[in-house]
Specification:
The chain has about 800 residues and is α/β, with parallel strands linked by helices. It is built from 27 helices and 14 strands.
Length: about 800
């Protein structure tokens, strides 16, 4: 048999609004019920979490935090460049974020650690700390001992040289400083903060200032080094370029002397004219292409029907005026069409006028297109004329071109080298001057102060957080327990989760007296307290049986349960006694052959019982025994009776039930557990009705569901499910529509108070109406009473 569990929210937290629409109060009551039910689990989770947070808070070493603020200079000024002086360049977000990383880099922290001699501080150099023994050290020693190693001789520097040992310690010091330092940007400003956390407040303030100072020194060093490298490289390039310019100018002079070339302004006159014509040709080509582009665009727009998108059309004042006139005519045309006939002269004239305006607009557009076409033609003709002139000039320059080309190349090369030399000389002088003007890009806005109070731990905040986390953890444990709780808690659980009919709840009574000096069974409690809550629940159950089927009489009822110890036997005996006390002829059959609990509860020790009579060892009158406290008839089990494998499936049992039906108004059969005994399933199928007893907050839904499936398989007519042994003092914390403990206590005598030598009745036990005085002597029933007559009325009406 395998149990299946389903996870669902606790009752009430996801229930629909089924009572006056007030779901908020119902949900709140459900939560309060969960708190009451899981109080100890919530308390345990809360205490565990709170004590853990408190322990960590009070055992944590106090740490002090100091902060230094650095401002970035985002408008760097170069005094040599006047534009740089007047307008600075603002740093972007990426550059500022880069500076944050630089300020917290390992190289900068290494310089700080070296300058501040942190290797001599035990807070940063773990090798200088005093070794303290702890539980973890003991565990480590034990593990090393199991591995055959001596924990006392375990030295992490055993296999290192002195240099490697020193380097490893320095690395650990820098790593410790990086962990204790925090570099951040203040919002979206140009401010950076360097915060250091330390066990010593003076050390925290000193290191925060040291990081800011080292950051400024690092910027100075980088700028000076870059300036020195640039100056050296520029000086070398100036020397090389000077020699190169001298050689190239000499080559130009030699070439001109060899070819006897005389130029005006360095160029022949024809060459100057050619340059002019070429520049003119370029401008004409641009004009031609622009005119052609405008003309092509207009043609495309006209073919596409988008005439209004042509720039020339949009800029035409004539067309715009005609469009305005056309709009006025069309508005008048619309007005005339709305009030005149289609062939009215005035309407026809208006339409003709509108068509005439459209023709004028089209003609104007065609005129504009013609003008653009003429512009293209003129531009092409002018460009062709200039090209002819260029060809003529080129013929005259043919002889001198071959000589001018090498000369021009020599001149351009010399000019380029000369210009480059001048730029390098100027930049070299500027760089030399800037050496004395280098300043860092950051300034310390505020130095750190020695903190007076530790930053961590925050005792009040931590304890408050511990309270919140404890409540959350305890509440989570309670909700998880409710989600995985598969116990039956209320009649609503029977209806909603088991899809079955609830037929009442039987309260739990105290069966043990004070100091264990006396005890009372539930069936005896029924006799002694007929107006108690327990008696009322049994009376309600008996009424449910009596009115279960108005068309046919219900006589044989099998009372069963899923598993043992669910109070089935006590409930059967109590139900039988209540029926007998009410005047009904009632028989209770002990059908649990293995435990004989009903026989023992009735304090019977028969020699001839149910089994002996069933298999011919005794008469029925000898087997049936009268209850000592009521007129109830009991068919018990003898202690020495042999139990065969099949009892309820035999013909003898069927014949016995045929004989018993006319003799009694109600026959109750106390069966064994359904999930353990096959006989219980058989007798449930043969009875008129079957009652499944479920122990409150003890039986699981999986067991009850399997029992319901077995009853359905054996075609048992299930009357319903009864919740047994309900603790009324705890039921108010569950979502149950039944009465609360306070209501029961006010209306019923529920139980007796334990006295020194037994049980003592409550004050209100005897203060009842004279007509409802508890019956101490069972009421006799006339034997001539018809078997099908109802024994009593509805107990709720009697109350």
């Amino acid at each position: 048999m395998s149990n299946s569990y389903s996870i669902e929210l606790p009752n009430g937290l996801n229930s629909p609004a089924d009572s006056a629409g007030d779901t908020t109060s119902l949900d709140f009551k459900s939560l309060i019920g969960i708190v009451y039910r899981r109080f100890w689990l919530i308390s345990l989770g809360f205490l565990a979490t709170f004590l853990l947070v408190a322990y960590v808070t009070f055992t944590q070493t106090p740490l002090y935090k100091a902060t230094t603020t650095v401002q970035l200079d985002t408008s760097q000024r170069n005094v040599i460049d006047i534009s740089s002086v007047l307008g600075g360049i603002a740093a972007n977000t990426a550059e500022i974020d880069t500076e944050v990383l630089v300020m917290g880099s390992k190289s900068l922290m290494t310089r700080v650690a070296s300058k501040e001699k942190l290797i001599e501080d035990p807070e940063f150099n773990w090798t200088l700390r005093e070794k303290k023994s702890s539980v973890f050290d003991g565990i480590k020693s034990g593990v090393l001992g199991m591995l055959g190693k001596d924990a006392s001789k375990s030295d992490p520097f055993a296999d290192m040289s002195d240099i490697e040992r020193q380097r490893t310690i320095e690395e650990s010091v820098v790593t410790a400083l990086i962990k204790k330092a925090s570099i951040k940007r203040v919002g979206t400003t140009y401010l950076l903060t360097a915060a250091v956390t330390s066990e010593n407040p003076e050390t925290a303030a000193r290191l925060a200032d040291a990081i800011a100072d080292q950051y400024r020194v690092n910027q100075m060093d980088q700028k000076l080094e870059a300036t020195r490298r640039a100056t050296s490289w520029l000086n070398e390039r100036v020397e090389v370029l000077a020699e190169e310019v001298q050689e190239k100018e000499m080559a130009v002079a030699i070439y001109m002397a060899d070819h006897d070339m005389i130029t005006v302004g360095g160029e022949p006159e024809a060459a100057t004219e050619l340059l002019y014509l070429q520049s003119q040709l370029i401008q004409l080509r641009v004009d031609y292409q622009a005119a052609q582009a405008r003309y092509d665009n207009m043609q495309r727009q006209m073919r596409a029907g988008a005439v209004d998108a042509i720039p020339e059309v949009l800029g035409s004042q004539v067309i715009n005026d005609m469009k305005s006139q056309r709009a006025i005519i069309r508005r008048r045309l619309v007005e005339l069409e709305s009030r005149l006939a289609d062939r009215h002269p005035e309407l026809i004239a208006a339409r003709s006028e509108s068509a005439d305006i459209d023709r004028q607009i089209d003609a104007e557009i065609q005129r504009i297109a013609g003008n653009l076409r003429n512009e293209v033609t003129v531009a092409r003709r002018r460009m062709n004329d200039v090209q002819g002139n260029i060809a003529t000039v080129n013929l005259s320059l043919t002889k001198t071109t071959s000589a001018m080309i090498p000369l021009n190349e020599l001149r351009r090369d010399a000019d380029t080298s000369r210009e480059l030399l001048e730029n390098f000389i100027s930049r070299s002088k500027q760089t030399g001057v800037q050496d004395s003007l280098v300043e860092p890009d950051a300034s310390i806005l505020s130095s750190s102060t020695i903190p007076n109070a530790p930053s961590t731990p925050k005792t009040v905040l931590n304890l408050l957080l511990g309270v919140i986390l404890g409540i959350i953890f305890g509440g989570s444990l309670a909700l998880l327990s409710e989600m995985f709780d598969s116990k039956i808690s209320s009649s609503e659980d029977v209806e909603r989760k088991l899809k079955s009919n609830p037929i009442g709840s039987v309260p739990m009574i105290r069966t043990q007296s004070f100091l264990g000096l006396g005890s009372i069974s539930p069936a005896d409690h029924l006799i002694d307290n007929p107006l108690s809550a327990y008696a009322e629940s049994i009376r309600y159950l008996r009424a449910a049986i009596a009115f279960s089927d108005l068309d046919s009489e219900t006589k044989v009822v099998a009372v069963t349960s899923s598993l043992p110890d669910e109070g089935k036997t006590s409930l059967t005996l109590s139900l039988g006694r209540m029926s007998a006390m009410s005047g009904s002829r009632t028989l209770v059959i002990d059908g649990d052959f293995r435990r004989r609990q009903l026989t023992e509860a009735a304090v019977l020790s028969p020699e001839v019982g149910f089994i002996e009579h069933l298999f011919g060892a005794g008469e029925l009158t000898d087997a049936i025994t009268k209850d000592s406290k009521s007129l109830l008839d009991i068919l018990p089990l003898s202690r020495s009776g042999h139990t065969p494998h099949d009892v309820f499936g035999t013909r003898a049992f069927d014949e016995m039930m045929v004989r018993l039906r006319p003799m009694y108004d109600l026959i109750l059969i106390d069966t064994g557990p359904l999930l353990l005994m096959a006989e219980a399933r058989v007798v449930a199928g043969k009875a008129d009705k079957a009652i499944l007893v479920v122990r409150w907050r003890h039986s699981t839904r999986s067991a009850v569901n399997q029992s319901l499936k077995l009853l359905h398989t054996f075609k048992a007519d299930l009357l319903g499910i009864t919740l047994n042994m309900v603790d009324l003092t705890r039921r108010r914390h569950h979502r149950d529509p039944g009465a609360t403990y306070k209501a029961y206590r006010k209306y019923y005598t529920m139980e007796t108070k334990p006295g020194l030598f037994g049980f003592k009745k409550k004050k209100n036990a005897d203060k009842v109406h004279p007509g409802l005085r508890p019956m101490t002597t069972p009421v006799s029933v006339s034997p001539a009473r018809p078997a099908n007559e109802q024994s009593d009325v509805d107990p709720r009406a009697a109350e």
